[in-house]
Amino acid sequence: MTSQAAPFETRFAQTVSGRRPRRHGGPWRRAWLVLAGVAGICSAQVETTEVRIEVGSGVTVVEASYRVRGEPVSFRARRFPGQELRVLTEGIELHQRDALAWFEAGGTVELRYAVRGARQRVPLFVPDAPVAGPVAIRIHGLGAGRELRDGFPRLEPAADGALEARPSDLPSFVRLPPRRGGLSVHRLAEAAVVLLVLLATGIWVLRRRRAE
């Protein structure tokens, strides 16, 4: 006599509770663990973020404030070629591997770190959680005469001489604007466009001559 199959609801409950054999509960259990992990990540949220960048002659010092609500989260930053990162805040253990730097923290995080070497792009530590509050970035020490359109995110001069940006989300780096008259991103792009047009025109003329 063959046994009747249990209703789907009963089989699902048995699968989640672990009373089913492993060959039936494996996929369900893995999915359950994945959902639990996603729920844990989503429970954390960064409410406010403030970043202050002080540009010096040989080192750039970054001060960043985060307010994490929920479980501790990981903060990650990309170290660009020719750069060295060193955390100045006590109690924060920084891990570095290849071009990645990271640490884990929760609650109110007051981070201070130094960037030595190449400083055109200043890396910022971005949390592995949604940033719900406002983001404020201020840059000091650059002085006047900068090509602000070549900075990232969009920078505006402040009354105290600093540059400030209020992006909708926390970027992974800040590109410092170069001095006016120097080699900028926009000038390089314009030169590349002109070069491509001249090259395309030369190829077209050469083909026409060969066709004749």
What is the topological layout?
Layout lengths: L7 H10 L4 H21 L2 E11 L3 E11 L3 E6 L4 E5 L7 E3 L2 E6 L2 E10 L3 E3 L2 E2 L7 E6 L15 E2 L5 E3 L7 E3 L9 H27 L1
Parallel strand pairs: 1-10
Antiparallel strand pairs: 1-2, 2-7, 3-6, 3-9, 4-7, 5-6, 8-13, 10-12, 11-12
CATH architecture of the largest domain: Sandwich
Give the CATH level 1 class of the largest domain.
Mainly Beta
Through-space gap between termini:
90 Å
Please write the string of helix (H) and strand (E) elements: HHEEEEEEEEEEEEEH
Poorly predicted segments: 20-25, 32-41, 183-191
The share of residues in extended strands comes to 25-35%
Which sequence of strands runs across the widest sheet? 4-7-2-1-10-12-11
| Overall outline | elongated
Q: How confident is the prediction overall: mean pLDDT?
A: 79
Number of domains: 2
- The amount of helix comes to 25-40%
The SS-based structural class is alpha+beta
Overall strand count: 13
Number of helices: 3
Notes on the protein architecture:
The protein is an alpha+beta fold and 212 residues long. The chain has two domains: 8-42, no CATH class; 45-175, Sandwich (Immunoglobulin-like). The protein is built from three helices and 13 strands; from the N terminus they run H-H-E-E-E-E-E-E-E-E-E-E-E-E-E-H. The chain has helices at 8-17, 22-42, 185-211, and strands at 45-55, 59-69, 73-78, 83-87, 95-97, 100-105, 108-117, 121-123, 126-127, 135-140, 156-157, 163-165, 173-175. The chain has a seven-stranded mixed beta sheet with strand order 4-7-2-1-10-12-11, with no helix packed on it. It is elongated, with a radius of gyration of 27 Å. The model is unreliable at 20-25, 32-41 and 183-191 (pLDDT under 50).
